[in-house]
Each structure stands twice: as structure tokens, then as C-alpha cells.
Amino acid sequence: MRETGLTVIGLDLAARPWRPTGVAVLTAGKIRTSLVFMDEELIRLVVAHYPRLIAIDAPLSLPAGRCCLRPDCDCRRFGISRRCDRELVRQGFRVFWTALPSMVELTCRGVALAGRLRTAGFEVIEVFPGAAQKRLGLPRKQDNRAELARRLADAWGLVLPAGRRLTHDELDAATAAIVGLLYLQGRAEAIGDPAEGQIILPAPA
């Protein structure tokens, strides 16, 4: 179902600012995508569109009990995963633990960016496009990127640019925006502990 009365932004956040972050702006029943890099670019884009909601594909919180992700801090005893991560694994989704060494940069960037956006007055949620695509009956980007783009265009209004293929970052950002829309429509499920941090998925069919 397309919604014409609000704007949602989806972000497929890169761990490092010199790598592209996929951005999708869902408004007036259409989803338009782009790639940005630095945090300041992201902030300017968000402020320019002033969305009702921002849905980010990146960990936006730390495991309960952890104060940081430093390997030499005593808080490391609280582990590397959150309840939402573990619940998704139990549901059959492949998840990278929030505080896994290879995830530390992304988690730190996600937590910091979400904090800035929330301080500026925006509502921010964490999403997982891979799991969302499975819930929505869509192909995964690694299986058939062209078919994923076509299905998102047909069902959700994704605008396919002429002369180039959308990147996997843009397709995940578009999916993130769709999850944000479903969340606002009351058609989504929150996984995990609200006090620790939740991941939002489309409600099961």
C-alpha cells in the first residue's frame, strides 16, 4: 500500500564515511534513491526533506550493560549481542552480532548518527532490510538484484533511473524506507527489548 501524505527516509548506512551510504526518500507514493558519504551530507539531506521517520540499516544501540565497544573495557563481559539480534537468529535470519569486531565501526557510526538525529527532533528506528525482504516475499539483492528492483518499483513506487542499475546500497535503503512506512501504518513488528534497542520488521503475513 502506497502512502502519499508523509515522507520517510531509509538509510543503508556504511561503516565508514568514505564508502557510499544508500539513501531512499519515500514521498508522494514514490521512492527516489541516491548515494551519500559523510555524516554532514546525511544530516543536510534529512533536514532538507524533514521526514516523519528515518529508518536506518545499522545497529543503533549497544548490548545491555555495555558502555562502549572498546576491547579493553570491563563492559566487554556483557557480550557482543543484543536480545533483538538473538531473537532474529532464532527466527532463522542471518545476523552479525552488534559488537562483533567487524561490526564495531558500523555500530559506532549508527549509534552516533541516530543520537544526532534524535537530538534534532527526528524519530529514528533500526531496520534489517534482508529480513524485511524475506518477510515481504521479495528476492534478496545477492540472489537477483534486477528482480528486486523491478518488484520494488511495481509494488512500492521505486523510481528506476535511466542508464544505470541501482546499487545494492540503494535497494536496501529503499527497503528500509518501506519498513518505515509500514511501521507508521501499524503494520510492523518490533523485535527485542525496548530498553536495549529493537529492530523493526514488517509484520508476519
Structural write-up:
The chain has one domain: Ribonuclease H-like superfamily/Ribonuclease H (Nucleotidyltransferase, domain 5). Helices cover 35% and strands 20% of the residues. The chain is built from six helices and seven strands; from the N terminus they run βββαβααβαααββ. It has a seven-stranded mixed sheet with strand order 3-2-1-4-5-7-6, sandwiched between helices. It starts with 6 loop residues before the first strand and ends with a strand.
Radius of gyration: 16 Å
What percent of the residues sit in helical stretches (DSSP H or I)?
Answer: 25-40%
Q: What is the element string, with H for helices and E for strands?
A: EEEHEHHEHHHEE
Indicate the CATH architecture: 2-Layer Sandwich
Q: CATH fold name, please?
A: Nucleotidyltransferase, domain 5
Task: Write a short abstract of this structure.
This protein is an alpha/beta fold and 205 residues long. 35% of the residues lie in helices and 20% in strands.
Give the secondary structure arrangement, pairings included.
Blueprint: E1 7-12, E2 21-27, E3 30-36, H1 39-49, E4 53-57, H2 83-90, H3 104-119, E5 124-127, H4 129-135, H5 145-156, H6 168-184, E6 188-193, E7 197-202
Parallel strand pairs: 1-4, 4-5, 5-7
Antiparallel strand pairs: 1-2, 2-3, 6-7
